[in-house]
């Protein structure tokens, strides 16, 4: 594929003083990533169209009790339900940390319909995202109920490569349009990954992926094996333990000393990973223990999926690595004309998406410059070989564990000439993560970082001159 030529290949040019270039940009998705991308692109003077398959902004945070026809999410013909939220979900990050950098997620205590808890329920996050969209005029850029079904490169008459976007209205009408650049913000928590279990084909029980879990009631009096140890596995196992006969949590990362009855529960046990499943309904774990179970619930994560994107192999998903991508955003040969926002995980997504979006917007307007294609390619190669040397599987390419995300955020911030991560945000994230691990039952309602909350609120007064509650 020919890479779009253009003036952006020059190396390390100083910031330009002449007027910024405006591009016609398609943003795919109006979740947190798409909303902030649209805002940053608009601020930089680009013309923006946001395509949204659903009927409102918010993406993942639009909770629906609906589930898919295939509970494992494997049938390619199933009607996709986008959101994976369960009814009881509260955020796993404190709101001060979670919000966009310049639009803090503060409690609206004066409004009794809002959830002012520090770790609020999912509907409060949706309200916040709607407020964001309204405040920055993003909603009017969104074409609702319009699914992008194809994105591919075309050569236009002036020989400058552009993108063709074909989109389909819910009414069935399909439209083709031309854009200078594409920003992909379609989310990555809708396409289930499931655990491979020897013998599962003949095991007679039910299987479901957490994507299709909403409420615990269907598990009443059942013996449930739940696979996984990430945040939703921890929440869902506790939700289900309230009604199920037994809950057995199987995890690859369990410490040997933790195997056995879960303290504080009469009906929950921890196990190593499942070894095999059998026709008689039994499930065998790697430590030799055996359980007769009714249900296996896979809380085993999701796959990146871009069914609309056609790049002749320039970008592919290989064992959940989207690549090659420079800094998790640009394929070097298509930069900055194709970008991805929000791929990193084990991060604080909103501020990270905000910084990625500022970077993309400034590059498209030529306020700042990228390294050459060769240098970006070399950087990607180096990154992949560092992962390989460390023994990190490909599927963890976009994972940023611990405090690593802040180095990434700060690198982006420096590219864009804006401030690096606030000291309180780093410390608060660190302390909340530790409490989440040590006090999974109570971390959302008890904490000991009041000093950091005060620092955050002090910082937020920049954005709320009338005080946080009189914004
Ligand atoms: C169970 C769960 C709990 C979470 N908890 C937290 C938390 O506590 N705190 C936190 O900060 N984050 C949390 N997250 C992460 C969450 O995903 C991010 O906060 C954020 O919602 C990601 O936004 P996004 O815009 O990247 O994707 P999404 O919110 O998924 O939005 C993608 C949008 O793209 C649209 N779309 C997709 N394909 C197309 C297409 N072809 N054409 C048009 N539109 C399309 C979708 O309809 C959707 O609106 C959680 C995620 C899950 C699944």
Automatic annotation (TrEMBL):
The keyword Flavoprotein applies. Keywords: FAD, Flavoprotein, Monooxygenase, NADP, Oxidoreductase. InterPro entries: FAD/NAD-bd_sf (IPR036188), Flavin_mOase (IPR000960), Flavin_mOase-like (IPR020946), FMO-like (IPR050346). Pfam families: FMO-like. Its cofactor is FAD. Its EC number is 1.-.-.-. It is an enzyme of class 1 (oxidoreductase). One of its GO terms (molecular function) is N,N-dimethylaniline monooxygenase activity. PANTHER family: DIMETHYLANILINE MONOOXYGENASE. Belongs to the FMO family. This is Flavin-containing monooxygenase. It comes from Ficus carica.
């Amino acid at each position: 594929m020919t890479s779009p030529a253009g003036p952006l290949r020059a190396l390390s040019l100083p910031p330009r003083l002449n007027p910024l270039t405006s591009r016609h940009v398609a943003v795919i998705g109006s979740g947190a990533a798409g909303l902030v991308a649209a805002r940053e692109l608009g601020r930089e003077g680009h013309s923006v169209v946001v395509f949204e398959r659903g009927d409102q902004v918010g993406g993942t945070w639009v909770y629906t009790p609906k589930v898919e026809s295939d509970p494992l999410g494997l049938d390619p013909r199933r009607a996709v339900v986008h959101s994976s939220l369960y009814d009881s979900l509260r955020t796993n990050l404190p709101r001060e940390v979670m919000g966009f950098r310049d639009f803090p997620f503060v409690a609206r205590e004066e409004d009794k319909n809002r959830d002012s808890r520090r770790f609020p329920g999912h509907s409060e996050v949706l309200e916040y995202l709607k407020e964001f969209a309204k405040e920055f005029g993003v909603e009017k850029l969104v074409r609702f109920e319009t699914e992008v079904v194809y994105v591919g490169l075309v050569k236009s008459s002036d020989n400058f490569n552009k993108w063709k976007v074909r989109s389909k209205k819910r009414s069935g009408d399909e439209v083709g349009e031309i854009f200078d650049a594409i920003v992909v913000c379609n989310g990555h928590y809708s396409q289930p990954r499931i655990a491979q279990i020897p013998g599962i084909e003949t095991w007679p029980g039910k299987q479901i992926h957490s994507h299709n879990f909403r409420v615990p009631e269907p598990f009443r009096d059942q013996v449930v094996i739940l696979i996984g140890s990430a945040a939703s596995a921890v929440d869902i196992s506790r939700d289900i333990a309230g009604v199920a006969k037994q809950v057995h949590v199987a995890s690859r990362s369990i410490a040997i000393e933790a195997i056995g009855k879960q303290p504080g529960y009469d009906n929950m046990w921890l196990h190593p990973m499942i070894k095999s499943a059998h026709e008689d309904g039994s499930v065998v774990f790697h430590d030799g223990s055996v359980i007769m179970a009714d249900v296996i619930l896979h809380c085993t994560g999701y796959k990146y999926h871009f069914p609309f994107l056609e790049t002749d192999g320039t970008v592919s998903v290989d064992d959940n690595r989207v690549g090659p991508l420079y800094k998790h955003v640009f394929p070097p040969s298509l930069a900055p004309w194709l970008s991805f926002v929000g791929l990193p995980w084990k991060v604080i997504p909103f501020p990270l998406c905000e910084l990625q979006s500022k970077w993309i917007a400034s590059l498209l307007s030529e306020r700042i410059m990228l390294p050459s294609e060769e240098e970006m390619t070399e950087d990607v190669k180096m990154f992949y070989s560092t992962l390989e040397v460390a023994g990190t599987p490909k599927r963890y390419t976009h994972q940023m564990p611990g405090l690593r995300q802040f180095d990434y955020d700060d690198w982006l911030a420096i590219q864009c000439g804006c401030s690096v991560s606030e000291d309180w945000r780093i410390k608060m994230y660190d302390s909340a993560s530790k409490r989440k691990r040590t006090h999974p039952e109570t971390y959302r309602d008890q904490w000991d970082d009041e000093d950091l909350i005060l620092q955050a609120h002090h910082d937020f007064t920049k954005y709320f001159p009338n005080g946080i509650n009189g914004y």
